Amino acid sequence: MIRNINLWVTDGYISIPDGNSIYIWGYTDAAGKRAQVPGPRIVVNQGDVVNISITNTLPEATSVVFPGQSGVTADTGSGPQPAGPKYDGGGNLVSLTDFADYPGNPGGNPPTITYTFTAHRPGTFIYESGTNPHKQVQMGLYGAIIVRPSDYDPAVPAKKTAYGENTHTEFDREYLVVVSEIDPVLHQAVEQGKDYKIRDFLPRYWTMNGRSAPDTMNSDNAGYMPNQPYGAMIMAEPDEKVLIRYAGGGIENHPLHPHGNHTRIVALDGSLLKNGTEDLSYKKFTVLVGAGQTYDQVFTWSGLGYNPSNPIPTVMPNLRNLGVGDAGWTMWSGSPYLGEKGDVPVGVTSFNQVGEYHFMVHSHEEMQITNWGEFPGGMMTMIAIFPTGTLGDAGTIEGLG
Amino acid sequence: MATNFSLWAKTGNISLPGTGPVPFWGFAGSAAGPAQLPGPHMEVPQNDNVQVILTNDLGFPVSVMFPGQEFTPQPARDSGGLFVSYNSETAPGGAFSYNLTPGRPGIFLYESGTSPEKQVQMGLYGVMVVRPAGFDPGNPATWTAYGPGTGTEYDVEKILVTGEIDTNLHQELAAGSPAAEFNPGHFIINGRSYPDTTDPDSGGGQPYGSRVSVTSGQRVLLRIINAGFINHNIRFLGITPRVMAGDSWPLLSAGLDKSYEKNTITIGSGQSYDLLFTAPAAGQYMLYDRNLNCSVNDNTFPGGMMTVIEVV
Ligand SMILES: [Cu+2]
Q1: Quick one: how many helices (H) and strands (E) in chain A?
Q2: Is the CATH code 2.170.130.10 the one for domain B159-311?
């Protein structure tokens, strides 16, 4: 199939739970819309010919690189050419790949460009700016591409996989978490047209899908975050295979771990960990999500001795895991119970509406689970295990494509 | 078999984009030759008896250690018994002879073990390449990184040594001041920052270019080794290499293939990866640090840890 995807490169604002509003550059899927972070999810099938056109409205040139893809071409109006580094008349590199100029640049390139590639391999991939990437990627010009295997069929369990039948990558539900970091001073410098000094880079916010905790746990398309449409809460039922796709959208590495079942890494950068019949997937507790890299993992919740005939298997966890604050607030889960609601400590509100069980996933660089130093926040979300039969959706990611 | 190398530890100056001369300390390959960054590549056969004679032309003690090699370092202590160096050092004007027998093939750092927080940052590091048994430089049919059965046959080999430079720190250490804050603004492959990385090999203090020039269809072995203090994320555009070895332990052996493809490779300080790919269609393919604050010279993109794979 041919997939035609249109993106606009523009600016906007995102909201941070401490009340801050951060100027960003990003992608969006319609003319006139504000930019979003991360960029729109792109979901295509293996073998598809993918045409991604961008229209630039920024005050400087921009481009898109597709790490992990091969044979990318670029077309600025005179036909597709192999995409590659671009130099000025003096031989100085100006962009890692063919670019869309800023609108109205006298004698410049057009402000639109179309990249084309064949999605040869399934997996999780990144797309991001290749022009002034030290600034543009950090400002928010990054997103993820999911390529479904050619035999993908969500109606057939053996074919609802990340990498194809018999690759040991079946899943019931999948989640995509793109992590990054924000230095508000640099963002403000761009907003105000001041010098962008990457050497002064000092992030104060850390994000999952463009949001900082606790916004990470809010639903997709939460109305008060119009430019941060993707939630980062991972929800599943007992015994389900859960595929988590991590992507590093920032410029630093982040060690993420769950306070529950460890995950099995099945692919790196969209490359399946399997050679012939040799299964190279491996279990990991803390996954170091490297900048610009992707990690596909599968796990099944098996905590606390749960089984359907024993839906309330637990004792009340200790306060640390409850997340009960010293001012009397409760962070997320007031109850350890699964399937039925139980009593919570006096004076504490339970947020687990259907008796679900929560445990956190966060960066173990603990300063990153703050919003400008205030805990809790930042690169943190929850995995919520719901009672069997209470999560209705199909559990798959939709996107442009 | 025996192979002898002589190194002279000296002062010198390197040039980086947008800077004046930056003082550094490096190893020279001859008494009259300049200090260079990185030091001279040493190439030895596996199981050879290797002697490395270090002559110290610097004004303070210096040493060489060989991380990853089967080699027993002799930590040096001062007269009070305090640890001063990871390995036997030599005083200014002196010389010391190190002996080792590299038991396995691969790519290894050699670097100063004396005040390494200063001396390695200042440039006292280089690479030793250990060739597998049967390797004959004159016979391309024998060219492998790790010997037969390791899947590491290649046509073209390129060594890329990564690092960082804080020019202020270099100025202060060269002037004999205590080490200042480490806040590097220059990021180097083979001692050079982009675009100088793409210049050819040369004489002088930064002799090794990093442009990878190959023909479509050739098997290319990239050997990346991190002599710096920071972890880097080496990103390829348009190419996804296969990781064939980490820290010179091959991932493919009889009956077990643990090699894997990866598009962006996180390489920690002191680590190495051997990457193999088949050169794609003609064109230029960028290789750079996806730590995008290291693909700059100071605050300016492009620069730093970046080079070009040129396929014709
Ligand atoms: Cu933790």
Answers
A1: 3, 27
A2: no
Output the domain CATH number for residue A122: 2.60.40.420
* CATH class, B2-143 region: mainly beta
Cis geometry, peptide bond prior to residue B302 (ω within 30 degrees of 0): yes
In angstroms, the CA B188 to CA A334 distance is 51
Q: What is the ipTM of this complex?
A: 0.94
Residue B30 CA to ligand 1 centre (angstroms): 53
Q: Distance between the two ends of chain B, CA-based, in angstroms? A: 39
- Residue A207 domain-assigned (yes or no): yes
For the record, the structure tokens of A282 come out as 């491996």
Q: In order along chain B (312 residues), what is the average pLDDT of each group of 10 residues?
A: 93 96 97 97 96 97 92 84 89 96 96 94 97 96 96 98 96 88 95 98 96 98 97 98 97 92 97 98 98 96 98 98
Domain assignment present for residue A307? The answer is no
pTM of the model: 0.94
Q: Which of A69, A252, A292 sits opposite B235 (nearest CB)?
A: A292
CA–centroid distance, residue A361 to ligand 1 (Å): 7
Lowest mean pLDDT among A249-263, A315-329, A382-396: A315-329
The pLDDT of residue B77: 87
Bridge partners for A296 per DSSP: A245, A267
Q: Choose the closest CB to B262 out of A135, A195, A271.
A: A271
Amino acid at A141: L
Of A303, A327, A249, which Cα lies nearest the Cα of A37?
A: A249
Which residues span the domain enclosing A6?
2-299
Cα–Cα distance for residue pair A99/A290, rounded to 1 Å: 26
Q: Hey, what are A220's tokens? A: 């997709």
The pLDDT tens digits for B183-212 are 999 999 999 999 999 999 999 999 999 999
Q: Is the pLDDT of residue A8 over 90?
A: yes
CA of A397 to the centre of ligand 1 (A): 27
**A372 within some domain:** no
B231 contacts chain A (CB < 8 A): yes
Look at chain B and count its residues: 312
Task: List, for residues A142-186, the tens digit of each pLDDT value.
Answer: 999 999 999 999 999 999 999 999 999 999 999 999 999 999 999
In a domain, A165, yes or no: yes
Look at residue A386 in the predicted model and tell me its pLDDT. Answer: 85
**Radius of gyration of the CA atoms of chain A, in A:** 22
CA angle centred on A30, ends A24 and A34, rounded to 5°: 25
Inter-chain touch B281–A288, beta carbons under 8 Å: no
Burial A58-75 (b: 16+ CB within 10 A, else e): beebbbbbbbbbbebbbb
Tokens of A98: 């063919």
CA distance A21 to A37: 13
> Parallel, antiparallel, or unpaired: how do β-strands B212-214 and B306-311 relate?
parallel
Instruction: Give the pLDDT score at A327.
Output: 46
Which residues of chain A lie closer than 8 angstroms to B303, CB-CB? none
- What does the alpha-carbon distance between residue A336 and residue A324 come to, in Å, rounded to a whole number? 12
Residues in chain A: 401
State the CB neighbour count (10 A cutoff) for residue A236.
23
CB contacts of A293 in chain B (<8 Å) are 233, 262-264, 266, 290
Which tokens is A38 given? Answer: 């991360």
- Specify the domain boundaries for CATH 2.60.40.420 within chain B: 2-143, 159-311
Contact A132 B284 (CB under 8 A): no
- Split at pLDDT 50, 70, 90, the class of A331 is very low
Question: If you ran DSSP here, which 8-state letter would residue B155 be given?
Answer: S
Report the gap between the CA of A336 and the closest CA in chain B (Å). 38
Average pLDDT, chain B: 95
